[in-house]
Write a structure and sequence with these properties.
four-stranded antiparallel beta sheet; Alpha-Beta Plaits; alpha+beta
Length: about 110
Amino acid sequence: MLFMVTLLHPFGKGFDEFTKKTMELLSTKLPPYVELVKMYTAPAIGEGARGYTIFKVEKGRVDDGFIEIAKMFATYRNIEGVKVTIEPIISMKDAPALFAELTTEL
């Protein structure tokens, strides 16, 4: 399963601490069932910057993987203005079947 972590961080106060935490995050050893796929960043006009991190978690270890990812990003909780969201995502190839299943259950 894939998880996307979105970090919104304002520029200014707390940005140095945010950068330090991000460097620590990049050096974190992940468990073998969690893979960091890619990290992206984009401007968040009027809000600062937004970062996106994609993780792949081994089938059968989704709960454990989610907990590990959440623990990693919990370190940002004390930085003023930083917002973190973690959500499962799926590929466009897999989406039609899942969405068809979901809409039939509604």
